[in-house]
């Protein structure tokens, strides 16, 4: 099987355990504190791997590259992930996770316009099946959702798709690990500035009085204990650092649309992990949605798998 598909599967597995880990520490940390910590720690963890990748590619970073990575970190971490946390406040986290998994719909369109990647018929059919699966899981006829929360979730999804497509342009030059590391560090630095800014008395008072308590007086070091530390290490290093590194490695080996299969597979894997680890029940509509998503993912992957099978085998392989 094509190496890029292994990266896609590995990324999907890692990303699918994120909600489980976050649930274990959800009551101990401020949501934006968590976002800042996991992306900064993930970026620091990836520095040795990024340096090795730069040496292998005989490439180097300079000050001219900084604005691009600052923009990437701002779009992916500061905007997308912060708005994601706002949507979780308005809509159940499980619903937001499913909505966020519609990222491929945006990625395919953005990749067509920004990267000139073609959209094939099987991808269109897969997207339609994915939409059907997401709607089945949300079950819109029997759930009352905040329109504002849904809008925030979709804006976050769109911004993350922009982040992914923008990142692919730099992957060709620097490599996926370098792009992940640099965007994480830049996004973490920008979020640190935002956190410190939120703690200024005048700013804190204005945010609290404007109904933006989520962004007022954001803590930095509260919530840590021997019970939360292992989960935080998993969230920062495995779910964030390794997860996004594999995500961009998949983009190097495949296309933006194919890599977006990660978000097709996540709604399938996450409920399964939640069932076995947390004991959460998989409802009938969740099962129906999973079936649609599996068929859609298979439909999108099938042409690539057939192409690999038709490649001539080298002697000794």
UniProtKB/TrEMBL annotation:
Membrane spanning stretches: 5-22, 34-54, 66-87, 93-115, 124-142, 148-165, 177-197, 229-248, 260-278, 284-305
Location, primary (coarse class): membrane
Protein localization: Membrane
Membrane topology: Multi-pass membrane protein
Keyword terms of this UniProt record: Membrane, Transmembrane, Transmembrane helix
Presence of the UniProt keyword Chloroplast in the record: no
Gene Ontology CC, one term: membrane
Ranges where the EamA domain occurs: 3-138, 148-301
Family: Belongs to the EamA transporter family.
PANTHER family with a match to the protein in the record: EAMA DOMAIN-CONTAINING PROTEIN, INNER MEMBRANE TRANSPORTER
Protein name: EamA family transporter
């Amino acid at each position: 099987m094509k190496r890029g598909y292994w990266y896609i599967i590995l990324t999907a597995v890692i990303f699918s355990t994120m909600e489980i880990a976050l649930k274990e520490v959800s009551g101990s940390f401020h949501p934006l504190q968590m976002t800042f910590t996991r992306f900064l720690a993930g970026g620091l963890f990836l520095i040795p791997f990024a340096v090795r990748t730069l040496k292998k590619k005989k490439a180097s970073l300079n000050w001219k590259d900084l604005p691009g990575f600052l923009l990437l970190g701002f779009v992916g971490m500061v905007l997308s992930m912060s708005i994601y946390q706002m949507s979780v406040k308005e809509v159940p986290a499980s619903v937001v996770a499913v909505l966020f998994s519609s990222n491929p719909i945006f990625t395919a369109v953005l990749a067509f316009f920004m990267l000139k990647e073609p959209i094939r018929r099987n991808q269109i059919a897969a997207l339609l099946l994915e939409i059907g699966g997401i709607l089945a899981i949300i079950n819109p006829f029997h759930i009352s959702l905040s329109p504002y929360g849904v809008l925030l979730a979709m804006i976050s999804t769109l911004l993350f798709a922009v982040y992914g497509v923008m990142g692919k342009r730099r992957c060709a030059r620097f490599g996926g690990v370098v792009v992940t590391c640099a965007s994480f560090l830049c996004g973490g630095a920008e979020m640190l500035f935002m956190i410190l800014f939120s703690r200024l008395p005048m700013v804190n008072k204005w945010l609290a009085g404007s109904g933006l308590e989520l962004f007022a007086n954001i803590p930095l070091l509260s919530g840590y204990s021997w019970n939360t530390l292992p989960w935080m290490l998993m969230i920062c290093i495995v779910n964030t650092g390794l997860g996004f590194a594999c995500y961009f490695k998949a983009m190097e080996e495949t296309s933006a649309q194919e890599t977006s299969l990660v978000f097709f597979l996540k709604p399938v894997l996450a409920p399964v992990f939640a069932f076995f680890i947390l004991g959460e029940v998989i409802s009938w509509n969740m099962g129906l949605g999973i079936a649609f998503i599996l068929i859609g993912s298979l439909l999108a992957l099938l042409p690539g798998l057939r192409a690999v099978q038709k490649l001539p085998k080298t002697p000794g392989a």
